[in-house]
Design goal:
CATH topology of the largest domain: Rossmann fold
CATH class of the largest domain: Alpha Beta
Number of helices: 20
Distance between the termini: 5 Å
Length: 386
């Protein structure tokens, strides 16, 4: 049995003046040029950071390289990343931070891609990590021969509510408040907080990546409404606001029932996590007695459309990297999760794919057969390899 720990990074920092305030600037690689990646790239460039942007699609990169990125909405920016490329080595070379802004089901592939180039002094941030993201990323690097592992941070939600209008143009609907982050083998509090503040104004460090993973709100809000509206989605010809119309009062009640399974799992690990309704109130400043009324009151959700097909990330991401690991962690902790299991089973029958086998299960997370206390140790930043 080998015990592997994550080692802290020492970032190379520079500073610029923003008015009379001395502001730290960093070299940041943004991995992924979707909704969040483009928003991050333009916003971080506006803050004065050096920004590289990677995407596997050459067409999208060519458009951004030519025209830059424009953000409209709750803030305005028109910026051009310093580097735009489909060559991941070129983008991450010499960067202080590697900010992965892709659906969580792409984390393993990204970790494999950067294996030959990653340095232990670089900081990896998964935004978001969903459930078990940092652990999977760490395991993949290790299994591909990286001996001196970087520190890995994950958030439970994307910092922005945003949608890409077209490549190079993003509508920013809201910047979320009170998003927690988990850090594997967290030691250097002030150092990492200072670096995170360069990306997100009010970072909060949670107790562990397990706690952050159990706070996976996307797994609650996304799959169930899609699976229970499959007829509308397959035949739709008009805009259906996901949070206003696809989540009816009864579906919202069912989401809150499924959410109680998630909070029951957390209590087994002695974590006090927010319900989906309380989280919504904390992040968006909306206080209602129930989830349905909260969602109906959130103007940031007004333009967010429902999926047009079942290949959408609300299914392809939020079930294998959300509901599956929640179900598996719950099983290890001897917590019953009938509604979570029902959604996984329904998706498996509809898609004809063994999502439980392909997702972040107990075996791939390395927690199969472990006790509650051992699982907590794994998610604190230590991984046991047999």
């Amino acid at each position: 049995m080998i015990l592997v720990a994550i080692k802290l990074s020492n970032l190379t920092n520079n500073y610029v003046f923003e008015g009379e305030l001395l502001v730290q600037t960093l070299k940041i690689a943004v991995i992924g040029a979707g909704n969040g990646g483009q928003t991050f790239a333009a916003h971080l460039k506006q803050k004065g950071h050096e920004v590289g942007l990677w995407n596997r699609s050459k067409e999208k990169i060519n458009i951004i390289d030519k025209n830059g990125i424009t953000i409209n909405g709750c803030l305005h920016a028109q910026e051009h990343p310093d580097i735009t490329s489909t060559n991941i080595k070129q983008v991450i070379k010499g960067k202080d931070i590697i900010l992965v802004v892709l659906p969580a089901n792409a984390h393993k592939e990204v970790a494999q891609r950067i294996t030959p180039y990653i340095g232990e002094n670089q900081l990896v941030i998964l935004n978001p990590g969903r459930t078990g993201g940092a652990l999977e990323f760490c395991n993949t690097l290790h299994q591909n021969g990286v001996k001196n592992l970087p520190e890995i941070v994950e958030s439970q939600s994307l910092f922005y509510t945003c949608r890409m209008v077209k490549p190079g143009l993003v509508n920013l609907l809201a910047i979320k408040d009170n998003i927690e982050l988990g850090v594997l083998n967290y030691r250097n509090g002030n150092g990492i907080l200072n670096d995170l503040k360069c990306i997100y104004d009010h970072p909060q460090i949670g107790e562990s990546t397990l706690k952050i993973g159990l706070e996976n709100i996307g797994a609650m809000l996304h799959p169930m409404p899609v699976l229970l509206n499959i007829g509308l989605i397959e035949n739709r010809k008009e805009f259906i606001p996901h949070y206003y119309k696809a989540i009816t009062r009864k579906i919202a009640d069912l989401i809150e029932s499924m959410d109680s399974e998630r909070t029951d799992i957390a209590s087994k690990f002695d974590y006090d996590i927010s319900s989906v309704n309380k989280w919504h109130g904390d992040v968006y400043g909306i206080k209602e007695d129930n989830l349905y009324d909260s969602l109906q009151s959130n103007s940031a959700y007004a333009s967010i459309d429902s999926p047009y097909n079942l290949e959408h990330r609300y299914i392809s991401e939020d079930i294998p990297t959300g509901l599956v690991p929640l179900c598996e962690i719950g099983k290890c902790a001897q917590v019953q999760t009938p509604l979570i299991k029902l959604m996984i089973s329904l998706a498996r029958e509809i898609l004809g794919v063994d999502i439980l086998k392909q997702g972040r299960n107990a075996r791939t997370m390395g927690i199969k057969g472990l006790s509650v206390e051992d699982i907590k140790e794994v998610f604190q930043g230590y991984k046991f390899y047999n």
